[in-house]
């Protein structure tokens, strides 16, 4: 009987799998903090609009966010590079083992962290255990809050529903969600390639955030293919991984000088 | 030998002086005839003043509005009516859960551990403490379900066979929690029921009407034959020993919900014993409060619950306080010494952030003040003062859980998300759980004897003052 060491979690096997399959690089040196990725991600993945009050209280649903930091006290403030933060698709993810109902399993095929919306019961343990704090919870049925609707002939209609992406679930309240690396695009590309009898080529498709980035700061692709653009970017000297000391094996590499 | 020679040689005054100071007064050397004592307990159950009904009415109103209505509203609207958000994904509901499980520990501790170790002062208040266990666990369970995003699907956490062969994840500390708490609920309820059987039989024989039917069903036909007593004793011993490891494991596992997570301030290997001691700390305080209220409001209770019992309970509280203090310093100082950057941020934030008042109150209420007061025998023997210390400890322990869950969650490794938690609807639901606990307690105080009469009588039979010449000697014998 053979045992899949990746499933068992043996350390040697994890180190081997550290590279992952799909990966991303984000160049913080050229990121302008324009939030185009945030908007594109929300369009692509049906991320809900939560309104001003809830957003101010810390309930934004965004799967990617631009973190902004600064150095020093007020008069002598120096801005540091913008830091887009999204699910790092950890190879050894802390969110996975803590779910009591297996709503956040690891996909062996894509080597990504999946979130099964209709299995989630909303204990929110995964979000607590995520060191990157990138999971967002549906505190409310944000897609049908009355503030978003227009009253037409006595019924509420929601114009924003016209832009929903049919390939992606609209999540209801009480479930966790997070960045999927646009898994619907991955599957679409794989299906197309399969029907044409070939492999998926590098750069054939990309995630919504990478597609929208005007500065091309985000690169997406196969990190296990050494010749792909994303692998070459990731192996530059500037490449760092966030919170590497926790050994969660993130698949996103940040490029930052010095 | 010196002690007994004092009795033998003592003059009459010396004996009287000794009688005043006799440290073993909690053995209750003034036994009453069994019939009279049974009648006292029955009367304490039947006597209700109008004040009782007023309090009952207020509590019922609070339970209906703050528990059922508020929870229903939250299920209907979604969790956004509460204060939970990023980064404090867990809030007051889990604070309540941990708090109520903590309260529930005192019951098992007093009735099982003290029974196993044959600590005689436990006899009159084991029942009161066990009821706290059961009712506390009901509130803890309810709080867990309140906390869930989709509570209507909570049965997915149980290993129920299904067509898709989906199984719960036994790697998750929440699953361990669920199993540990449900085991504890079952075990402690059975352990509450077993010593209750003789008292129910006693009540059955002394009541009429619907009460008679009620007790008849619950007493399971207990007649008090020797065979029945032997079976009952064996079963109680069995459960007393079995429930002790369950009790320790439950709060250790609850602490693992936090200790297993990768959060600064949570990932601490001492959390298991720290939480168990914290539970005993708050539980003892709650027992002191309950005993004070029982003594103040119910008839004939000053015969059963005496200041010597409060004294003994106070000593236990003092001991638990010291043990708790050790683990408190162990937890915080080791984390500080570790020098992890995120933990450092957290500790600084606790001591000088907006929640510093809570941290200071917690330290003073739990660690500084109780030992300073409980040293004094006078304080220990004053019921209202001991109840006040109990209240203080419980407030402090509530703050401790509040600090560990929403306040520690505020500080994480991603400074961009730091945000202070503010409770919203949780306040009402907390009032609701507290009211429900008190309501259950008040209803049950009219239905079952809060004093385990047979245990008190057994104690008085085994402990007596024997006359040796002119002096009286306390004798302690044991059954079996």
The average pLDDT score of chain B comes to: 87
The proportion of strand residues of chain B reads under 5%
The top level CATH class name of the domain at 91-160 and 167-424 in chain B: Mainly Alpha
Query: Which runs of chain A of at least 5 residues are low in confidence (pLDDT < 50)?
Result: 8-13
> What is the total number of structural domains of chain A?
1
What's the Cα radius of gyration of chain B?
A: 24 Å
Q: Count of DSSP helices of chain A?
A: 8
- Named CATH topology of the domain at 91-160 and 167-424 in chain B: Formate dehydrogenase/DMSO reductase fold
According to CATH, the fold-level topology of chain A is Alpha-Beta Plaits
Measured by DSSP, the beta-strand proportion of chain A falls in 15-25%
Overall shape of chain A: it is: globular
Instruction: Note the gap between the termini of chain B.
Output: 26 Å
Round the mean pLDDT of chain A to the nearest integer and report it: 88
Q: Return the structural class of chain A.
A: alpha+beta
Largest interface: A-B, 43 and 42 residues
Low-confidence stretches of chain B: 1-21
Give the helices and strands of chain A as they follow along the chain. Answer: HHEHHEEEEEEHEEEEHHEHEE
In what order do the strands lie side by side in the largest sheet of chain A? 12-1-14-13
Helix fraction of chain A?
Answer: 10-25%
Largest sheet of chain A: 4 strands, mixed
Q: Based on DSSP secondary structure assignment, what is the total number of beta strands of chain A?
A: 14
Structure notes:
The complex is a heterodimer of chains A (258) and B (480). Chain A is α+β, with helices and mostly antiparallel strands. Chain A has one domain: 2-Layer Sandwich (Alpha-Beta Plaits), CATH 3.30.70. Chain A has helices at residues 5-8, 11-16, 36-45, 52-57, 125-129, 183-195, 208-212, 229-234; strands at 22-27, 64-67, 70-71, 78-79, 83-86, 106-107, 112-113, 136-137, 150-152, 155-157, 176-177, 218-222, 239-240, 252-255. Chain A is globular. By secondary structure, chain B is mainly α. Chain B has a domain at 91-160 and 167-424: Formate dehydrogenase/DMSO reductase domain (Formate dehydrogenase/DMSO reductase fold), CATH 1.20.1630. The two termini of chain B are 26 Å apart. The A-B interface holds A 54, 57-60, 65, 67-69, 83, 85, 94, 97-102, 119-125, 127-129, 131-133, 136-141, 173-176, 243, 246 and B 77-80, 84-87, 89-90, 147-151, 153-154, 156-157, 166-169, 171-175, 178, 257, 260-263, 409, 412-417, 419.
């Amino acid at each position: 009987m053979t045992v899949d060491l990746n499933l068992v979690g043996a350390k040697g096997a994890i180190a081997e799998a550290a590279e992952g399959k799909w990966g991303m690089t984000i160049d913080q040196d050229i990121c302008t903090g324009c939030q185009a990725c945030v908007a594109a991600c929300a369009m692509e993945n049906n991320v809900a609009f939560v309104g001003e009050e809830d957003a101010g209280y810390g309930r934004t649903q965004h799967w990617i966010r631009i973190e902004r930091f600064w150095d020093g006290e007020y008069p002598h403030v120096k801005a540091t590079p913008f830091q887009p933060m999204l699910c790092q698709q950890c190879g050894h993810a802390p969110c996975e083992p803590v779910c009591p109902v297996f709503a956040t399993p690891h996909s062996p095929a894509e080597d990504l962290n999946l979130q099964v919306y209709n299995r989630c019961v909303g204990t929110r343990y995964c979000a607590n255990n995520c060191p990157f704090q990138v999971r967002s919870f549906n505190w409310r049925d944000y897609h049908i809050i009355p503030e978003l609707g227009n009253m037409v002939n006595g019924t509420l209609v929601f114009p924003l529903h016209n832009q929903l992406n049919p390939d992606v679930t609209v999540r209801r309240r009480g479930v966790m969600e997070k960045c999927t690396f646009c898994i619907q695009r991955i599957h679409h590309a794989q299906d197309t390639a399969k029907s044409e009898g070939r492999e998926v080529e590098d750069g054939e498709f990309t995630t919504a955030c990478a597609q929208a980035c005007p500065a091309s700061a985000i690169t997406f692709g196969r990190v296990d293919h050494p010749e792909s653009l994303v692998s070459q970017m990731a192996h530059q000297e500037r490449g760092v991984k966030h919170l590497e000391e926790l050994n969660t094996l993130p698949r996103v590499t940040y490029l930052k000088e010095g | 030998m010196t002690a007994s020679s004092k009795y033998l040689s003592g003059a009459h005054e010396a004996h009287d002086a000794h009688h005043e100071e006799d440290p073993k007064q909690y053995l209750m050397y003034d036994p009453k005839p069994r019939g009279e004592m049974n009648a006292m307990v029955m009367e304490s159950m039947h006597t209700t003043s109008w004040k009782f009904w007023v309090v009952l009415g207020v509590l019922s109103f609070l339970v209906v509005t703050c528990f059922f209505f508020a929870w229903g509203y939250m299920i209907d609207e979604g969790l956004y009516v509460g204060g939970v958000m990023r980064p404090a994904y867990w809030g007051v509901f889990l604070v309540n859960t941990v708090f109520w499980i903590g309260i529930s520990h005192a019951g098992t501790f007093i009735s099982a551990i003290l029974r196993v170790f044959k600590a005689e002062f436990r006899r009159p208040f084991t029942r009161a403490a066990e009821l706290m266990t059961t009712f506390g666990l009901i509130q803890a369970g309810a709080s867990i379900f309140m906390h869930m995003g989709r509570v209507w699907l909570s049965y997915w956490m149980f290993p129920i066979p299904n067509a898709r062969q989906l199984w719960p994840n036994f790697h998750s500390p929440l699953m361990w929690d669920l199993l540990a708490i449900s085991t504890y609920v079952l075990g402690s309820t059975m352990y509450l029921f077993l010593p209750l059987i003789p008292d129910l039989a006693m009540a059955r024989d002394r009541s009429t009407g619907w009460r008679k039917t009620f007790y008849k069903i619950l007493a399971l036909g207990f007649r008090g034959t020797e065979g029945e007593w032997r079976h009952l004793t064996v079963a109680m011993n069995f459960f007393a020993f079995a429930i002790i490891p369950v009790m320790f494991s439950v709060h250790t596992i609850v602490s693992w919900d936090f200790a297993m997570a990768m959060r600064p301030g949570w990932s601490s290997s001492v959390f298991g014993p720290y939480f168990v001691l914290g539970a005993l700390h708050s539980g003892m305080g709650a027992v002191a409060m309950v005993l004070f209220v029982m003594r103040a409001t119910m008839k004939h209770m000053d015969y059963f619950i005496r200041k010597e019992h409060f004294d003994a309970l106070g000593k236990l509280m003092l001991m638990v306080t010291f043990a708790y203090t050790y683990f408190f310093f162990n937890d915080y100082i080791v984390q500080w010494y570790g020098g992890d950057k995120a933990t450092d941020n957290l500790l600084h934030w606790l001591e000088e952030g907006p929640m510093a008042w809570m941290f200071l109150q917690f330290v003073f209420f739990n660690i500084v003040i109780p030992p300073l007061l409980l040293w004094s025998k006078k304080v220990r023997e004053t019921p209202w003062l001991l109840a006040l210390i109990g209240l203080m400890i419980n407030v402090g322990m509530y703050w401790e859980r509040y600090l560990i869950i929403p306040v520690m969650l505020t500080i994480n490794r991603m400074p961009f998300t730091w945000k202070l938690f503010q409770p919203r609807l949780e306040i009402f639901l907390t009032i609701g759980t507290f009211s429900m606990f008190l309501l259950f307690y008040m209803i049950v105080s009219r239905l079952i004897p809060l004093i385990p009469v047979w245990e008190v009588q057994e104690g008085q039979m085994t402990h007596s003052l024997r006359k040796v010449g002119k002096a009286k000697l306390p004798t302690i014998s044991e059954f079996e």
